[in-house]
Design a protein that fits this description.
- The chain folds into two domains: about 300 residues, Rossmann fold (3-Layer(aba) Sandwich), CATH 3.40.50; about 150 residues, CBS-domain (Roll), CATH 3.10.580.10.
- Helix content is about 35%, strand content about 15%.
């Protein structure tokens, strides 16, 4: 009988890796030459490009480290299940390790993550559970809570990247030493996004041990807690938080630079087009912060920015024209929705809103005193730039509520509010607004990803009337 068993592996001098896991790390560093030239940067600005990891991101490093540690401690047994809440990249890293070592995976994601990320995890054979991003971390339906419940129900191992010390340890062992070697110890600034804080704190800890004068700088979404915000709302994925993870180390970090969604996304597109390096939104956050640092740095400084992943996971969002325009990040015409708002009565605030906990009587008074028929219901206000839209109310709806129950005047708005208003970007065509208002009572206008104003049929009628009158006067 012929022996068909696989022979013992012997590389015999060939340059062939034992497994895909052996390809994790040793990622390249590249100078951002064209960006530096266009911005008048004289120092060395370089990118640590984590895309060449097998899973396409920096998260492969802690994924491997956390699983190896769990195997060593006995927390993860052969054939076991791994459960983890993730924005996508950690899940990919864990899925790759799981495939090589025979584990099942269940990943919990929020609906803020792009469809590509969900599909990618499923392509690795993982089960994916999607949760609403709008709920608080302590809510039973939050992605943290759902992950914990699934861990208990399935007797699974949860790496818990937010609290696992092997997350930052992976970067202390590998990322930091690689950067030190690649720059020959000349690095002066290290900039990375802060999410779980693993890469920033882990690599930063090693770099500081080699030279305490190296500046460790967090690039952070401006609404994230690291920048002093509440943790919401913002659109950039995989970076920023609404709580302080275990790896957060404010004493290690020299500076936190807040970056808006608009800066992040436009920078990601700019770098991709200018350098030919396709980066995602969180990479855009890091580069935007690094440019601020590099512009003020000495000529002999070596500024290293950490790019965690590729823009391929954001083709339906950051690199999708319609998505960018709908959130008000791009402008498709001169005579757009913004032009309609400019012709409106200047005495009306840009964004009128009511808080979810406010009584119905307050919503009615706001509508009465401002002569409007609809109001968005917003959390985290004022100022309106921090608005997190929860729903909407309109005069017909409230009229019905009060007619049925006069005592409802004291009821909280969140108890009677309806669905959110449809959204349109401030730079989108007026024709689109006309089409949408055929079926919707009003539209919520977004600028830079944030609520700007409510657009009504009356606003459009006033706009078209003004155009007609102007044309008549010219004739």
């Amino acid at each position: 009988m012929t022996d068909t068993s696989i022979p013992a592996w012997d590389a015999d001098g060939m340059d062939i890796a034992e497994s895909i896991l052996d390809l994790i790390g040793q990622t390249p560093m590249v100078r951002m030459k064209r960006v530096s030239e266009e911005h008048g940067i004289r120092c060395t600005l370089a990118m640590k490009h984590e895309v060449t990891n097998p899973g396409g991101s920096s998260k492969d490093r802690p994924a491997l480290e956390m699983i190896l540690a769990a195997e060593a401690s006995g927390e993860l047994q052969p054939g076991g299940t791994i459960v983890e809440p993730t924005s996508g990249n950690t899940g990919v890293g864990l899925a790759i390790v799981a495939a090589q070592r025979g584990y099942k995976c269940v990943f919990v994601m929020t609906n803020k993550a792009g469809k590509e990320k969900v599909d990618l995890l499923r392509a690795y054979g993982a089960e994916v559970v999607v949760c609403d991003v709008a709920v608080a971390p302590e809510d039973p339906n939050s992605y943290y809570s759902v992950a914990e419940r699934l861990t208990q129900e399935r007797g699974a191992f949860r790496p818990n990247q937010y609290a696992n010390p092997h997350n930052p340890a992976a970067h202390t062992k590998t990322t930091g030493p690689e950067i030190w070697e690649q720059t020959k110890g000349r690095i002066t600034h290290f900039i990375a996004g802060a999410g779980t804080c693993g890469s920033l704190t882990g690599a930063g800890r090693y770099l500081k041990s080699m030279n305490p004068d190296i500046k460790i700088i967090a690039a952070d979404p401006e609404k994230s807690v690291f920048s002093g915000g509440s943790g919401r709302p913002y659109l950039v994925e995989g970076v920023g938080e609404d709580f302080f993870p275990a790896a957060y180390d404010g004493d290690l970090w020299d500076e936190v630079i807040p970056i808006s969604d608009e800066e992040s996304f436009l920078m990601a597109r700019y770098v991709s087009e200018t350098e030919g390096i396709l980066i995602g939104g969180s990479g855009g956050t890091a580069v935007a912060a690094a440019l601020k640092v590099a512009k003020d740095a000495d000529d002999d400084a070596v500024v290293v920015v950490f790019n965690p992943d590729s823009g391929r996971g954001y083709l339906s969002t950051v690199f999708n024209e319609n998505w960018m325009m709908n959130f008000g990040f791009l402008k498709e015409c001169d005579q757009c929705v913004g032009a309609v708002l400019d012709t409106r009565n200047a005495s009306i605030e840009n964004l009128l809103y009511v808080n979810p906990s406010a009584p119905v009587s307050e919503a009615i008074e706001i509508m009465r005193s401002n002569g409007v028929s609809q109001l968005p219901v917003c959390k985290n206000t004022p100022p309106f730039a921090n608005a997190e839209v929860a729903g909407a109310v309109d005069e017909l709806q409230l009229m019905d509520v009060i007619h049925r129950d006069p005592g409802a005047m004291g009821t909280a708005v969140e108890k009677v509010m309806g669905a959110k208003l449809p959204t349109i970007g401030v730079g989108q065509k007026v024709e689109l607004a006309v089409e949408m208002l055929e079926t919707a009572p009003a539209l919520l206008v977004l600028s830079g990803g944030q609520p700007l104003s409510v657009l009504t049929r009356t606003d459009l009628l006033s706009y078209f009337t003004a155009i007609a009158e102007d044309a008549h006067n010219r004739d």
